[in-house]
Automatic annotation (TrEMBL):
Trimers composed of three different chains: alpha-1(VI), alpha-2(VI), and alpha-3(VI) or alpha-5(VI) or alpha-6(VI). GO terms for biological process: cell adhesion. Residues 1-25 form the signal peptide. It is found in: Secreted, Extracellular space, Extracellular matrix. This is Collagen alpha-3(VI) chain. Residues 39-213, 242-419, 445-620, 637-708 form the VWFA domain. It holds the Pfam family VWA. Its main location: secreted. CDD domains: vWA_collagen_alpha3-VI-like. One of its GO terms (cellular component) is collagen trimer. Keywords: Cell adhesion, Collagen, Extracellular matrix, Glycoprotein, Protease inhibitor, Repeat, Secreted, Serine protease inhibitor, Signal. GO terms for molecular function: serine-type endopeptidase inhibitor activity.
């Protein structure tokens, strides 16, 4: 027996969400007052398996549900579709404006008969009902609800239309009766299933779930939830999308398999409407570093795009730095300068094709994709990591893998419907969730001191410059948050800008990206460290000395210093400046370790190139955001007990001076180090207790005056 299989949990869940029952009049009044509203479309199975007798029970069920819900300008609008081989609209969302008109139509509608094609019915609703012309108020932020009722197995596919509806954030309730396919119901219904799915043994049980269904509909469209509903765009709009294909060009793929990928792309692109006003295409190949093959606005016709794809050459490379490549496409391709139409509301799409796991950290690249609202697909073969692709893709359903590249062509049939769905706005990307919370900001002032010598070289300097920009991009920059200053050095020091020069993150990053090498002939790191301490960590340069803000220094150098660094490094520590040291193979590691506040803050990338520097980001950012440069002081109580007997006559001034010097080196204060002093001979004489002289001047003055 499966009667009301899901009902007990559904009933409890929905009642907790919707509150205790009220009378219908009270409920209707509450709906208006609370702003509850929805567009509700009933999709009813009218295939031959139902029959006229059972269809009458369906009419009564629909009648009772509508009667329990409100109809009006600010409440619930209804539409009704019967589905079989040819879906039939009974009425649209904007056909009726009163409850009585809707109820009258339901009472008099005819039973049609036909085959069960639920997938076709769902597609029909998307094309003919979820549009502004059909009365949908999705553009006004009104939740969209579909209630599907069926008694059998669908003769067509459900995966694509169900995925499209879920991607568009449509609330779908699935009601199965008698021989309904439970697996199909689960595929159709929205989450959570215990709220959106009903599986009944017979048609007479429909009457029993009216109250539960109404409660769950109310809960799903309550004002608290309605704000989460993504606005559906009119799916009759011009087919358009900006698609970047990000292809693994590392040795994981190899030249033979790379040719297979190109054949796959050619076959896929031949089936898409490519043009400047339709679908634009760009291609990026990645290995150690990403390389633009062509941008979204490079070619304007399908023939040109296909010709360019066929002519692509295999790059090769030991590494497959996917994280770096994701950052690259967001910064260089999904932008207006890169040919993107993102400002016009055109969907942004990334298709990643991978042959193995990433060689670098992908986390920040994935965040960048989500922040840019890019619709991401993950295609993999051979050793590609499915878990990694799922992390990158917008949804797990948008990840497609095959064991070997020879089967890669099979993925075209799976990918193509989704690409078309995005371009036709059948699939709408839900914007990233932005969580707003009150946090305590770790204020800090950070100086980047960069090797600008001619020996470093322009390519290395540019890589360092881009790396600094990426670090700053991930910091909370602002006058009341983190402040940044940058200086270059070689035989001299040139400040690029001070803490108080640029108040916003955008201005800081722009200034960094405009930096040109100093091109000095020598490298005097010691002098540069002194310059930073004396000229940048000052109030006139914008350092917030009065607030005691932590001082951090990030040194990036490519060579050994020609001057002495030991004393300047010690002065940094004495000034509570926390130094990070980054150097390539040309730098002196021992020198870097002496400069750094701690050996854990020394970073030595293989070379100053994008990929190795990118790999350092997580390890650098964590301490950069949290450490302060001032070790936490422990509380201590120190008792000095000295010999005050006749044995010390003549030597007491030496002992007293010794005590004075020791205490003078301590940080004496009530919440830190407290001092007590006593002398002994035949008995003990207490000079000062812990709670008597709690400041350094007081205790030192006491010591100076002590006598045996």
């Amino acid at each position: 027996m499966r009667k009301h299989r899901h009902l007990p949990l559904v009933a409890v869940f929905c009642l907790f969400l919707s509150g205790f029952p009220t009378t219908h009049a009270q409920q209707q009044q509450a709906d208006v007052k609370n702003g509850a509203a929805a567009d509700i479309i009933f999709l009813v199975d009218s295939s031959w398996t139902i029959g006229e007798e059972h269809f009458q029970l369906v009419r009564e069920f629909l009648y009772d549900v509508v009667k329990s819900l409100a109809v009006g300008e600010n409440d619930f609008h209804f539409a009704l579709v019967q589905f079989n081989g040819n879906p039939h609209t009974e009425f649209l969302l904007n056909t009726y404006r009163t409850k009585q008109e809707v109820l009258s139509h339901i009472s008099n509608m005819s039973y049609i008969g036909g085959t069960n094609q639920t997938g076709k019915g769902l597609e029909y609703i998307m094309q003919s009902h979820l549009t502004k012309a059909a009365g949908s108020r999705a553009g006004d932020g009104v939740p969209q609800v579909i209630v599907v009722l069926t008694d059998g197995h669908s003769k067509d596919g459900l995966a694509l239309p169900s995925a499209e509806l879920k991607s568009a954030d449509v609330n779908v309730f699935a009601i199965g009766v008698e021989d309904a396919d439970e697996g199909a119901l689960k595929e159709i219904a929205s989450e959570p299933l215990n709220m959106h799915m009903f599986n009944l043994e017979n048609f007479t049980s429909l009457h029993d779930i009216v109250g539960n269904l109404v409660s769950c509909v109310h809960s799903s469209v309550s004002p608290e939830r309605a704000g989460d509903t993504e606005t559906l765009k009119d799916i009759t709009a011009q087919d358009s999308a900006d698609i970047i294909f990000l292809i693994d060009g590392s040795n994981n793929t190899g030249s033979v398999n790379f040719a297979v990928i190109l054949d796959f792309l050619v076959n896929l692109l031949e089936k898409l409407p490519i043009g400047t006003q339709q679908i634009r295409v760009g291609v990026v190949q990645f290995s150690d570093e990403p390389r633009t093959m062509f941008s979204l606005d490079t070619y304007s016709t399908k023939a040109q795009v296909l010709g360019a794809v066929k002519a692509l050459g295999f790059a090769g490379g030991e590494l497959a730095n996917i994280g770096l490549a994701l950052d690259f496409v967001v910064e260089n391709h999904f932008t207006r300068a890169g040919g993107s139409r993102v400002e016009e509301g055109v969907p942004q799409v990334l298709v990643l094709i991978s042959a193995g796991p990433s060689s670098d950290e992908i986390r920040y690249g994935v965040v960048a994709l989500k922040q840019a609202s890019v619709f991401s697909f993950g295609l993999g073969a051979q050793a590609a990591s499915r878990a990694e692709l799922q992390h990158i893709a917008t949804d797990d359903n948008l990840v497609f893998t095959v064991p070997e590249f020879r089967s890669f062509g099979d993925l075209q049939e799976k990918l193509l419907p989704y690409i078309v769905g995005v371009a036709q706005r059948h699939i709408v990307l839900k914007p990233p969730t932005i969580v707003t919370q009150v946090i305590e900001v770790n204020k800090r002032d950070i100086v980047f001191l960069v090797d600008g010598s001619s020996a470093l070289g322009l390519a290395n300097f540019n890589a360092i410059r881009d790396f600094i920009a990426k670090v700053i991009q991930r910091l909370e920059i602002g006058q009341d948050l983190i402040q940044v200053a940058v200086a270059q050095y070689a035989d001299t020091v040139r400040p690029e800008f001070y803490f108080n020069t640029h108040p916003t993150k955008r201005e800081v990053i722009t200034a960094v990206r405009k930096m040109k090498p100093l091109d000095g002939s020598a490298l005097y790191t010691g002098s540069a460290l002194d310059f930073v301490r004396n000229n940048l960590f000052t109030s006139s340069a914008g350092y917030r000395a009065a607030e005691g803000i932590p001082k951090l220094l990030v040194l990036i150098t490519g060579g050994k210093s020609l001057d002495e660094i030991s004393q300047p490094a010690q002065e940094l520590k004495r000034s509570s400046i926390m130094a990070f040291a980054i150097g390539n193979k040309g730098a002196d590691q021992a020198e870097l370790e002496e400069i750094a506040f701690d050996s854990s803050l020394v970073f030595i990338p293989a070379e100053f190139r994008a990929a190795p520097l990118q790999g350092m980001l997580p390890g650098l950012l964590a301490p950069l955001r949290t450490l302060s440069g001032t070790p936490e002081e422990s509380k201590r109580d120190i008792l000095f007990l000295f010999d005050g007997s006749a044995n010390l006559v003549g030597q007491f001034p030496v002992v007293r001076d010794f005590l004075y010097k020791i205490i003078d080196e301590l940080n004496v204060k009530p919440e830190g180090t407290r001092i007590a002093v006593a002398q002994y001979s035949d008995d003990v004489k207490v000079e000062s207790r812990f709670d008597e002289h709690q400041s350094k001047p007081e205790i030192l003055n006491l010591v100076k005056r002590m006598k045996i």
